[in-house]
Design a protein that fits this description.
Distance between the termini: 15 Å
Shape: globular
Strand content: 15-25%
Order of helices and strands: EEEEEEHEEHHEHEHEHEHEEHEHE
Oligomer: single chain
Structural class: alpha/beta
Number of strands: 16
Radius of gyration: 20 Å
């Protein structure tokens, strides 16, 4: 077997296609060929001696960790990659690898933000949350994951997205959807919450740039205060409301200080939710054909901007 990889030879350089040794799994690691993108999905090729949950031949999706440990064997842009078992989930036979490949980063980023940063306990039985939950950027991969998790928690989801994605956002579980281009969007959100008898205390900003975090924080401030999770740093020049607790989330925590949570999120919640279809792959998929050699092309397309879809590079 060979292992073709897209490698960055030096800082700010374009990717180059190279052959790398096939890494061998150790401890709790899993080796498998994958479908590329920012996330990975494929068939388990071999497992480390400590792996009990997975076996060779399993169809899985998983979160790559090279960005954390700087180990190229854990990088996504190659045919064979090592993956930690606590950041891996089996996918149903009915699900394509392309669908599986758009899940890991979104579920990790949304999950860490909601359960760790907002402090919502992981349900162990039938107990759930209630009340209003605001998601800004709800048609993005992270935003749509946040909508689905919030709905699974029994929150009433207030979602902000482009009008062309409103129908899909409702399918993901949003009860009320708003146009971010509407100059009255903040007032519309507050009026909807009031009319529904809700108080919005929790919010997730999946965009976190161009003023979105300040807008979301303003909604919480007017609602009497609450907690806001953002995906990029809050602008240094912007004023933070005194009654709003703001946290910047970090998906890699599932493989650093919160490995047990990562295991629950991937091995338990995601795997079970994919089977019973309470969580579905989102947003729409756009394939970039050409295998490993097309990784740079995909990055260039992503840089130009995407809305309501995610790029996936199939290898097989």
């Amino acid at each position: 077997m060979s292992n073709t990889a897209a490698v960055i030879p030096e800082a700010k350089a374009c990717l180059q296609i190279q052959d790398r040794p096939i890494p061998q799994p150790q401890g709790s690691e899993i080796l498998y060929p994958n479908v590329l993108g920012s996330d990975i999905s494929g068939i388990v090729e071999s497992i480390g001696p400590k792996v009990k949950r997975f076996k060779k031949g399993d169809r899985v999706t998983g979160y790559a960790t090279a960005i954390i440990n700087q180990d190229p064997n854990h990088g996504a842009f190659q045919q064979y990659i090592l993956l930690n078992d606590n950041a891996t989930a089996r996918i149903p036979d009915s699900m394509s690898f392309e669908e599986g490949a758009i899940l890991p980063m979104a579920i990790a980023t949304a999950g860490v933000g909601i359960f760790l940063d907002l402090g919502i306990p992981c349900p162990t039985g039938t107990e759930k949350q209630s009340g209003g939950f605001l998601v800004w950027g709800a048609s993005s991969s992270v935003g749509s994951a946040a909508v689905q998790i919030a709905r699974w928690l029994d929150c009433t989801v207030y979602a902000v997205a482009s009008p062309r994605h409103h129908s899909k956002t409702r399918e993901y579980g949003a009860s009320h959807v708003f146009d971010y281009n509407d100059s009255n969007v903040l007032t519309n959100i507050e009026n909807a919450a009031t009319g529904n008898g809700d108080t919005i205390r929790l919010a997730y900003d999946a965009i976190s740039e161009n003023g979105t975090s300040e807008q979301v924080a303003s909604v919480l401030e007017q609602q009497g205060g609450g907690k806001l999770v953002i995906t990029l740093p809050f602008p240094e020049t912007a004023k933070k409301p005194d009654n709003v607790e703001i946290s910047a989330t970090l998906a890699p925590r599932i493989n650093t200080d919160s490995k047990e949570f990562g295991a629950w999120l991937f091995n338990d919640f995601l795997e079970r939710s994919l089977v019973d279809k309470t969580f579905v792959p989102s947003p729409a998929i756009e394939k970039v054909e050409g295998g490993i050699a097309s990784v740079q092309k995909a990055l260039d397309l992503h840089r130009k901007g995407l809305s309501g879809k995610k790029l996936v590079i199939p290898l097989f």
